[in-house]
């Protein structure tokens, strides 16, 4: 199955290796910089396949930066730099012949604020990622099928099925965020990166996104950055605690929130700082 | 305590009265200034209507120029010529202007972007007659004859800085988060710029383009040595071509009253054309903001 994914510009095959016990992604001694600022310090982590991993930590601890290293978005910022290794399907994504464009089709990302493309309809927004893949020419009917599947997966289909052709900016913020998740799901990524996906949403919309994340683990690996510890406890299988760019502790979520081994983790989750 | 507060408030009220007085004076002055700013346009429009409307008829739009003394003369060739020249100018000015604006916005802070921006500003300040002389030197003299192409290129070059600055400003208003969203979906950078960023900024860019078209539609100086003018119907782009500003110019300096009337009518048509384009530009801007939602 390791050869199933090529990062050299081909389209994803859209399947998750069945019953694979190993890790969907692993970072090895990963460092990230903004100019002279050392934002992520030698983080080594495994992300088991079909699990939800939550990354928590106070603001500025480097958790978002770390996440953005996993689909090579960090390097799109001027003066940003990455050192180290991220293994994905047996390949180092920072290897010399890896195309970051191809990688990002396998590793989807959703941001803190909803970012629907304002010039596109709801349907075209969901299909946007498909159109970014020049090797794959889908018929209009095939696109419609993918759009419906992605919107159902994002629990948005029933709310927008009658207005797929209308502007994506006409729906509520919570719906826009689920639309962005549907857009990321349309290309059938193996890993989904969520960067504080509910920070800009009202509680009810946030709950819907959380339920969605809980469901998505059945078909993909999810890594979610959050500063909401209750959220991490609710949706994740594993939790990672980061502080000042370093990975302090990682453990199954239940153990992390009941018996953390590092005193700094305990201090943070009991609310003594951050 | 209360007396202190009272005595403290008394001078404050006197100061308030004075400030109110100053405010009324200043508001009046700015109102007068605003009115004065509108006066030239109103006077010009009114005078043009008075002088030009008489000579304006269907013939003016459908007939060719005629010798002095003959009836039913028109400026059909000049109206067509101006439209053709605007088209040619757009072919030259829009791709270069929009491309340069996109480059400046997407590569902000780089040396080349700053240089291009500075040079575009210089080009914007270049007197239009200088642009005409340069077009004559490089596009007329080597070929040995005046041409519509040279005229279109001259005013097209004048559009470049106008279009590139508006494009840059409009592209800058596109949030960075949209670029990131596209990149994260696996869009290459060039497709992000063209299909997401440029499309999002398109409403504003169209407005800028229309303003630039309105601005160059009335240019005369760059056409004097390039398009030259033509008394006949011509669609040949390598031959001299008529244009409204040129026709107005040559009729206005002639000694004949009939031609003077025609020049007034031509000026009226030109200003109405520019007005229509400007109003169109405003309409495009408004529909963009209205359709934005959110």
**CATH-derived topology of chain A:** Rossmann fold
- Most extensive chain contact? A-B, 27 and 22 residues
CATH topology of the largest domain in chain B: MetI-like fold
What percentage of the residues of chain A does DSSP assign to strands (E)? 15-25%
Largest sheet of chain A: 6 strands, mixed
Order of strands side by side in the largest beta sheet of chain A? 6-7-8-3-9-10
Radius of gyration from the alpha-carbon trace of chain A, in angstroms:
18 Å
CATH architectural label of chain A: 3-Layer(aba) Sandwich
The oligomerization state is heterodimer
Tally of helical segments of chain B: 11
* Helix content estimate of chain A: 25-40%
Low-confidence stretches of chain B: 1-8, 289-294
Overall structural domain count of chain A: 1
Question: What is the CATH C-level name of chain A?
Answer: Alpha Beta
CATH H-level superfamily of chain A = P-loop containing nucleotide triphosphate hydrolases
Q: Unreliable segments of chain A (pLDDT under 50, ≥5 consecutive)?
A: 9-21
Overall domain count of chain B: 2
CATH class of the largest domain in chain B: Mainly Alpha
Helical content of chain B stands at over 70%
How does this structure look, described?
The complex is a heterodimer of chains A (274) and B (294). Chain A is of the alpha/beta class. Chain A has one domain: P-loop containing nucleotide triphosphate hydrolases (Rossmann fold, 3-Layer(aba) Sandwich). In chain A, 32% of the residues lie in helices and 24% in strands. Chain B folds into two domains: 54 residues; 232 residues, MetI-like (MetI-like fold, Orthogonal Bundle). In chain B, helix 3 crosses helix 10. The radius of gyration of chain B is 26 Å and the shape is globular. Classes of the chains: A alpha/beta (274), B mainly alpha (294). Chains A and B meet through helix 2 and helix 6 of A and helix 7 and helix 8 of B.
């Amino acid at each position: 199955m390791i050869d199933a994914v090529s990062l050299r510009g081909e389209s994803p095959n859209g399947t998750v290796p069945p019953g694979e016990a190993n890790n969907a992604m692993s970072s090895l001694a990963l460092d990230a910089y903004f100019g002279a600022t050392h934002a992520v310090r030698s983080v080594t982590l495994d992300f088991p396949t079909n699990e939800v991993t939550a990354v928590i930590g106070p603001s500025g601890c480097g958790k978002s930066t770390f996440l953005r290293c996993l689909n090579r978005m960090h390097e799109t910022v001027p003066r940003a730099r990455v050192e180290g290794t991220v293994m994905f399907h047996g390949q180092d994504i920072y290897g010399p012949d890896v195309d970051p464009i191809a990688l990002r089709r396998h590793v989807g990302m959703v941001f803190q604020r909803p970012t629907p493309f304002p010039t596109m309809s709801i349907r075209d927004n969901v299909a946007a990622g498909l159109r970014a893949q020049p090797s794959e020419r889908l018929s209009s009917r095939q696109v419609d099928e993918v759009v419906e599947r992605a919107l159902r997966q994002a629990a948005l289909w029933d709310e927008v099925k009658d207005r797929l052709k209308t502007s994506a900016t006409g729906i509520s913020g919570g719906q826009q965020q689920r639309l962005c998740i549907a857009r990321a799901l349309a290309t059938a990524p193996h890993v989904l990166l969520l960067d504080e996906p509910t920070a800009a949403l009202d509680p009810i919309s946030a709950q819907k996104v959380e339920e969605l994340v809980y469901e998505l683990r059945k078909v993909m690996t999810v890594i979610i950055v959050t500063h909401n510890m209750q959220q991490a406890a609710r949706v994740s299988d594993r939790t990672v605690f980061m502080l000042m760019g370093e990975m302090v502790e990682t453990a199954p979520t239940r153990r992390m929130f009941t018996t953390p081994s590092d005193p700094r983790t305990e201090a943070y989750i009991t609310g003594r700082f951050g | 305590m209360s007396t202190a507060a009272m005595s403290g408030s008394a001078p404050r009220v006197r100061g308030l009265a004075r400030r109110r007085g100053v405010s009324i004076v200043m508001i009046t002055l700015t109102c007068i200034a605003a009115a004065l700013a509108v006066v030239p346009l109103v006077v010009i429009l009114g005078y043009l209507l008075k002088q030009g409307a008489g000579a304006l008829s269907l013939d003016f739009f459908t007939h060719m120029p005629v010798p002095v003394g003959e009836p039913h003369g028109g400026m059909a060739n000049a109206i067509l010529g101006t439209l053709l020249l605007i088209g040619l100018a757009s072919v030259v000015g829009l791709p270069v202007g929009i491309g340069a604006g996109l480059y400046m916005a997407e590569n902000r802070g780089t040396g080349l972007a700053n240089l291009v921006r500075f040079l575009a500003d210089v080009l914007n300040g270049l007197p239009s007659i200088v642009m005409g002389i340069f077009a004559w030197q490089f596009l007329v003299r080597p070929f040995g004859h005046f041409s519509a192409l040279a005229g279109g290129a001259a005013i097209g070059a004048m559009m470049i800085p106008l279009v590139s600055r508006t494009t840059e400003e409009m592209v800058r208003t596109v949030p960075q988060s949209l670029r990131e969203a596209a990149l994260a979906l696996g869009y290459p950078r060039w497709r992000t710029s063209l299909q997401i960023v440029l499309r999002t900024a398109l409403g504003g860019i169209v407005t800028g383009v229309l303003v630039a078209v309105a601005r160059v539609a009335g240019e005369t100086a760059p056409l004097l040595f390039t398009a030259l003018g033509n008394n006949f119907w011509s669609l040949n782009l390598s031959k001299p071509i008529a244009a409204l500003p040129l026709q107005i110019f040559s009729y206005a300096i002639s000694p004949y009253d009939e031609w003077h009337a025609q020049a007034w009518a031509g000026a009226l048509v030109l200003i109405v054309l520019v007005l229509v384009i400007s109003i169109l530009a405003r309409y495009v801007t408004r529909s963009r903001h209205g359709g934005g939602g959110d």
